[in-house]
Each structure stands twice: as structure tokens, then as C-alpha cells.
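User: Sequence recovery, please. Input:
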């Protein structure tokens, strides 16, 4: 038996660890199961390259509660440690063995999915335990080792009689952390952090009913057996190749992620990149109905299949936080502050990549099946329009698939709009006039009047449309958007003056005076219409500039792109 002092620069690091290492004590389990997973994947790699001459088999990880003994066990069948390795990897706090392993096997182990990073994960055990034991047997032909530490810098290391390969971590749960001896609490943590980890994780057993044999007798009684209760899916959809997945697979995975979500997603985007950074994932466009509050915090961030957070702010561009799904990247720094994250160059690259990829996917969906895309337009437009306003990179690509619907159900892209309207709807300066309504019912008489004149009217009814219009006008010099009930409609070059009012000139004048008297505000004008339609005999309009002034003052001027000011749907 040896005794010694753990190699730390501060005299007693444990109180510090307990307080400051992670604000969330519960993540100790994530760290320990990650280490068990790393140990298993390292062995897999070493057997694969022939360096470990042992049978890899079908290793699992087990998490076990000993309520009476107030202990929590995490047991793996991974590569284990020799006594010397325990000295090296455990006693040297912040000496990350995972990094050393990856360094040593740089080229061959690149894609092994090994998690460890910081060399402090193991010590997070002391956030919930006042004593920790490691019993470990290496795959190398050496005696097993037993390490014990009660939270002071002193430890003991002695031989153990463990014969099977792998490591068992025993946490003697502290009195202030007994919640971690509750089955429901551990189950909750496993399903939060470990649901998609790559090695099967056993937590208890469950009974399974055996299938009824074909030659079963009449009085056959169903037989049950106890099987391992595996709490994770080691091969989640995002780790597979898009070509190997069907539409059903994507939908099934959506339900796996959101068991309480009954509505099917509209479509998914499979992210898959390994250069210049590593990132996989699947994003889903949910059906965003109008009365639904924007739900953020629906995208889950993983690192090598370990759940990290569902706050992806800064990693996913803001407009896409309305989507759902998972992102997995070993290149997003774990356990670091948000401000650091936002300043990290890699993270910005990731965000840009996601934006680009989403735009590309939308473009190909549009090109593959335009009709389907048009049908879904109302459910996705708010995300896309918001994206055009907030991300220039998205705006640049959006021209290829963003649609402008007409009141009668046609859809134009911006280019089609220009092409279609160029001979029909231009003002005196030759600018293309895009008439639009925001509310088909309330503005129906204006719409009809415009249609009677041969104009097409768009229906732009999302809450951020006036901002979008400003942007479009700013970027397209020859384009002007005019609300269908504005006075500009008269400035359009009329094709022909065929329509004639049913009223005589005298009657028209009288009517105009009468109506003007009852219209309260001087900001409106009364126009008599050429009536060859069922529209009203006169139209009350508000000059476009007055309307815009009012809208601008209501939206509070600038700063409208922050999510905080994003209109509620
Ligand atoms: P990291 O995982 O970032 O390397 P940790 O503090 O979590 O840092 O673990 C330190 C080291 O201890 C690991 O790199 C590994 O070498 C060793 N280790 C921890 N847990 C196990 C385990 N279950 N099996 C084998 N080695 C382990
Ligand atoms: Mg670790």
C-alpha cells in the first residue's frame, strides 16, 4: 500500500471544486458516465488497432444505487487503469488523460468520440460525495488497484482482488446530497444527459414478456424474464448518414426527442460537416401556429453524444432558435461561460455554417417540390422573414426560396415578382409598385378595387412585414411596396381608363363632400372609384407616408431586430 499527496497547487482544492467547479452539482453523473464511456471507447480503439489483445465484446456501463450503504456505483468494462495510471491520471488533478490519449493516438483516434477535455471531470464526484473509491483493473496483465480519497488531498492506493477488466467508481454520497440516492432522480439525470451516449447504460432491470410460442397450450401463461434496463439509445439518428435514414426514421427520432410533441415536424435539416470543424445534428421545422408563443430552448446541444445544454444562444443564430432538434459538436467548448462562447471564433463559424446549411436545404426543398413548399409557407415564413432581417448571410441566399403570396393564392419569388409586375405595375418614376394587403378581410374592398384595375395584390400578413419591406426597398432601388389602401394606388400607371363610375360628375362631387364631412381625420382622403366591380362606391385612404410614420412611431424606431422586441405570435 502506498499513501501520498495529490499533486495540486492549492493546499486543499476540494472545497473549491465543491463550490465552483460546476454550478450544477448534478453534472457529476454526466462526467463519470462520460469517463466510463471514454474508457470503453478507448478499449474499442486499442483492440481495433491491435494494441490491446483482448476481446472487446459487448461492454455496457452500469449505474447502481445502494441506498442502505448510501453509495452510488458507476461500473464500466473499459480499458481500466494500472496503479501507475491511477497515480498519473487521477492524482494529478487537471491532467487530462483523454487529451493525452488523443494526442498519442492523434491520427488513428480522431473519430473515436472520446469526450474528456479538462481533467477535472472526475473530481466533480466530490461535489456530491465525501468519499470516493476507484476499483480498477487494466486490460494489461497487471494487478487491480483500489484508490480511496475522503476529500482531503490525502489518498490511499492499494492492490485489489478485482478480476474482471474495467473500473468501478464508488461514491459515498454526502449527507447534503442524498437526492442522488433516489432512483427517480438518477433516472431523470440519465435521461437528461446520457440518453444518446454511445455505450449502452444499464440502470436496474425490467421485466419483459416472452413471445407466445406457436405451439402454446390453451392454458398458456405468459412468461416473463428480467432483462437489463438500458436507458439510452447508443445510435441516435444524427450520428447516421442521411442516405441511411428514411422519412419515418426522422419522424421517429423527433418523437424520441420530444415524446410529448404530437404534431409532425414540417421538415428536417441534417447537418453533417467535418471540416473545418466537426458538427452533426438534425434540425426540425416545427409547425408554428399563430397563437403559439415562440418556444426557444428546444434545440439540444451535445458533445460526442453527451447532452450539454438546451441553451444554444450564440451557437445557433437567433432566428433558428425557433427550430427544434439536436446539434452535436466536439468543437464547441464545454463548461465555459456564455461570453467566452460568443467570442470564440469557432463558435461564430459554427453559427454561420448552420445559417448557410439551413438556407441551402430550404433552397433544395423549394426546388425539389415547390408546391409542397408553398403549402408549408405560412408555417415557416415567420422564421425565414426574421432570418432575412437578422442575418445578412441568410438574406443573401433567401432570394432563391422566400415567397411572396398574392391574395388569391399565387406565390412569387422576388425575381418572379419583378418579372411579372414590370409591365403592369409601375409608378410615374418607373418604379415597380408592389401592392400588398395585410388583412384580406378588413381590406377586401381595396383589394377588389385594385384587382378591378388589373393589379395584383400580395398578402403580407406576418407581424414583422413592415420591417421586411423596408429592407427589400432598401436593397432593390426600383421596387416600392404600397399598401393596397394607400393613395399611391392612383400614381400607378393605369393601363387604360376603361372603368367609368356609375355616378354623374355632379353626384360624385356631392357624395365626396358628404363623405368627407363624416370622416373625422384630416389624414384621410376620399376617392370616388371607377365602379365596374362590386366594390364600394368610394374609398377612404390614408396617404402612405402618414401610415408609415404612424407605424414607425409605434414600433419604437430602431432596435427592432432583437428577439426581445420580436412580435409575439
Ligand atoms: P478527462 O476525462 O477530461 O480526461 P477526468 O478528470 O474526467 O478528465 O478523468 C481523468 C482521467 O482519469 C481520464 O482521462 C482517464 O485517464 C482516467 N479515468 C477516469 N475515469 C476512468 C475510467 N472509468 N476508466 C479508465 N480511466 C478513467
Ligand atoms: Mg472526463
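Assistant: Recovered sequence (569 residues):
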Amino acid at each position: 500500500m502506498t499513501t501520498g499527496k495529490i499533486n495540486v497547487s492549492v493546499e486543499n482544492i476540494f472545497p473549491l471544486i465543491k463550490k465552483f467547479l460546476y454550478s450544477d452539482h448534478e453534472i457529476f453523473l454526466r462526467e463519470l458516465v462520460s469517463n466510463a464511456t471514454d474508457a470503453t471507447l478507448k478499449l474499442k480503439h486499442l483492440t481495433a488497432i491491435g494494441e490491446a489483445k483482448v476481446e472487446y465484446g459487448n461492454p455496457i456501463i452500469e449505474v447502481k444505487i445502494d441506498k442502505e450503504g448510501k453509495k452510488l456505483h458507476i461500473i464500466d468494462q473499459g480499458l481500466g487503469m494500472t496503479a501507475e495510471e491511477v497515480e498519473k491520471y487521477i492524482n494529478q488533478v487537471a491532467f487530462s488523460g483523454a487529451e493525452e490519449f488523443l494526442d498519442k493516438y492523434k491520427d488513428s483516434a480522431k473519430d473515436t468520440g472520446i469526450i474528456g477535455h479538462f481533467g477535472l471531470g472526475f473530481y466533480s464526484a466530490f461535489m456530491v460525495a465525501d468519499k470516493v473509491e476507484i476499483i480498477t483493473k487494466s486490460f494489461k496483465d497487471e494487478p487491480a488497484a483500489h484508490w480511496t480519497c475522503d476529500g482531503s488531498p490525502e489518498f490511499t492506493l492499494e492492490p485489489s482482488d478485482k478480476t474482471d477488466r474495467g473500473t468501478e467508481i464508488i461514491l459515498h454520497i454526502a449527507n447534503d446530497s442524498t437526492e442522488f440516492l433516489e432512483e427517480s432522480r438518477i433516472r431523470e439525470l440519465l435521461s437528461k444527459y446520457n440518453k444518446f451516449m454511445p455505450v449502452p447504460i444499464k440502470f436496474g432491470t425490467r421485466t419483459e414478456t416472452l413471445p407466445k410460442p406457436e405451439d402454446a397450450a390453451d392454458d398458456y401463461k405468459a412468461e416473463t424474464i428480467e432483462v437489463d434496463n438500458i436507458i439510452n439509445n447508443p445510435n441516435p439518428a444524427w450520428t447516421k448518414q442521411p442516405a441511411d435514414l428514411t422519412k419515418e426514421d426522422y419522424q421517429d427520432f423527433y418523437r424520441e426527442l420530444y415524446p410529448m410533441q404530437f404534431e409532425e415536424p414540417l421538415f428536417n435539416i441534417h447537418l453533417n460537416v467535418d471540416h473545418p470543424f466537426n458538427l452533426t445534428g438534425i434540425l426540425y421545422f416545427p409547425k408554428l401556429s399563430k397563437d403559439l408563443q415562440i418556444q426557444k430552448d428546444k434545440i439540444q446541444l451535445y458533445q460526442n453524444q453527451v447532452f450539454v445544454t438546451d441553451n444554444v444562444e450564440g451557437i445557433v443564430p437567433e432566428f433558428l432558435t425557433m427550430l427544434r432538434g439536436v446539434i452535436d459538436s466536439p468543437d464547441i467548448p464545454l463548461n465555459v461561460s456564455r461570453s467566452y462562447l460568443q467570442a470564440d471564433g469557432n463558435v461564430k463559424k459554427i453559427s454561420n455554417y448552420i445559417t448557410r446549411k439551413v438556407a441551402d436545404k430550404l433552397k433544395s426543398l423549394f426546388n425539389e417540390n415547390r408546391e409542397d413548399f408553398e403549402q408549408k409557407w405560412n408555417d415557416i415564413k415567420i422564421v425565414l422573414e426574421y432570418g432575412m432581417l437578422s442575418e445578412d448571410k441568410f438574406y443573401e441566399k433567401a432570394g432563391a426560396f422566400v415567397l411572396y403570396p398574392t391574395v388569391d393564392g399565387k406565390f412569387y419569388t422576388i425575381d418572379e415578382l419583378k418579372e411579372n409586375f414590370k409591365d403592369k405595375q409601375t409608378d410615374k418614376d418607373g418604379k415597380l409598385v408592389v401592392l400588398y394587403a395585410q388583412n384580406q378581410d378588413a381590406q377586401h374592398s381595396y383589394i377588389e378595387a385594385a384587382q378591378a384595375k388589373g393589379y395584383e395584390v400580395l398578402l403580407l400578413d406576418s407581424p414583422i412585414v413592415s420591417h421586411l419591406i423596408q429592407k427589400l426597398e432598401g436593397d432593390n432601388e426600383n421596387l416600392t411596396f404600397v399598401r393596397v389602401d394607400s393613395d399611391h394606388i392612383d400614381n400607378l400607371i393605369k393601363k387604360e381608363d376603361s372603368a367609368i363610375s356609375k355616378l354623374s360628375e355632379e353626384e360624385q362631387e356631392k357624395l365626396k363632400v358628404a363623405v368627407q364631412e363624416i370622416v373625422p381625420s384630416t389624414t384621410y382622403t376620399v376617392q370616388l372609384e371607377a365602379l365596374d366591380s362590386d366594390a364600394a362606391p368610394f374609398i377612404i385612404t390614408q396617404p402612405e407616408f402618414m401610415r408609415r410614420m404612424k407605424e414607425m412611431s409605434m414600433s419604437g424606431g430602431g432596435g427592432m431586430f432583437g428577439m426581445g422586441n420580436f412580435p409575439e405570435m
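The two ends are 67 Å apart (CA to CA).
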